[in-house]
């Protein structure tokens, strides 16, 4: 048995068989395959080689037709390597005698060959080393593709174990088969984690070495509440966890009842609980969990799950479907938040050196106007079908906001000229998720109808801690006095200028923070739908003066540990059975 500590991302506990999802090409972990599957693994390798040869021949023929015979020769070298039995046969043997996975055997053989070429020192051999590494990637991507196909075909329920997940891959997991997930990499609020959490299954990320410790088919337990993965548990541990799983199933029935109850404090103040969604279909789950509308629709996922750029009609259909499912409740559409860990890097000719500080979100849209306008037109068209609010991500300067508003007005005029119906009074707001915007909230407040505080990014930019990097995850916390100070500044500016202010970062879904957020003055929170009943339980157990007292007390602290301990202790007082409340920290 091995116990691996990670970062809890989505609460709940599951036990089941591990499915190793080979995802990344850079770091291929060592895995054994059972004796009975060795021949299958060799066959898988042969298939990947055959597919790579077929692709290379096609690339060679295309290059010859377009560029002539000389450039096509590059592919001949690659083809020659793949047909060279002195390279290929030892890989087969390694799989058979070492009982290692095909990706591991490939990476081991190709990378050592590249090293040998590189060690020869000359430019010609250095180039050959690069060619070998290209080939390594080509073969591995075939094997990774097979791994994804295998997951699609799997019949029983499994727990996915992977070195890292991309947001796209997380979005494609089918919860009828995938009952839990754990990864080596990732942070609490990396976008892949957010999407995995939205699936409502237990998820632990940042386990650093789980993909190396687990073999395909191993029994594992993923405890998404405390952030632990137990590999090959002993009988006693398994029984203990099975009792926990049964207890949680009983609690789930209570939570379903809560979905139907009103979200009001003991002294009668309504706290509006909205949902964060990535796809229209999540609205059904949001309503089932008692959500009152959508506070954040992360529309960039339309891009992340489509091989081609979505058309205006595809945007429009997604928004119209959402409005219809909401049946009169408000849909807050955030315009494309592409960039950083979403979409643009893999497709860029040259990846950015510092993508979270680079061309992302509204900056990316302002440099890609046709794409941005396509989305704005679709949003306007959908606004004729029900209440929509539009919100811009990662605004960091007033000029940027003004430019964005001008573009929106241009698109409105175009629509008017074309006789397209839309809501001319559609409220327009912004995410406040960059310290510069938080500090200047009073100036921004004169320009927008609402603020939505994005603590996921606000924490990373205030504390200079990458939200997706497990190595600095201990420094990433919403309990930071600096972050709380900025949140307070935004709420104060919102109040002063009568700008509705809500919060949609992941802390909105952590019961540990609920009293603090209410005490700071927030009356609307937007969160992952599955957490709505948990947060509502806190709302119904507290009153405003108690929350305000807590916010004042916490405001005087200068350490995040002090803040966190106090939040936990206060929640424990009002809801002893929550045991201090679920929190990712
Ligand atoms: C945030 O930054 O808090 C937020 C809600 O946006 P995202 O997680 O999509 O960056
Ligand atoms: Mg953000």
The small-molecule ligands in this entry are:
phosphoenolpyruvate, magnesium ion
What portion of residues is helical?
40-55%
Work out the helix count.
Answer: 24
CATH architecture of the largest domain: Alpha-Beta Barrel
CATH class division of the largest domain: Alpha Beta
**How large is the share of residues in beta strands?**
5-15%
Low-confidence stretches: none
Shape annotation: globular
The count of strands amounts to 16
Radius of gyration, whole Å: 26 Å
Strand order of the largest sheet: 1-8-7-3-4-5-6-2
CATH fold field value of the largest domain: TIM Barrel
Gap from first CA to last CA:
25 Å
CATH evolutionary superfamily of the largest domain: Phosphoenolpyruvate-binding domains
Derived structural class: alpha/beta
What is the count of distinct domains? 3
Q: How is the biggest beta sheet arranged?
A: 8 strands, mixed
Mean pLDDT: 91
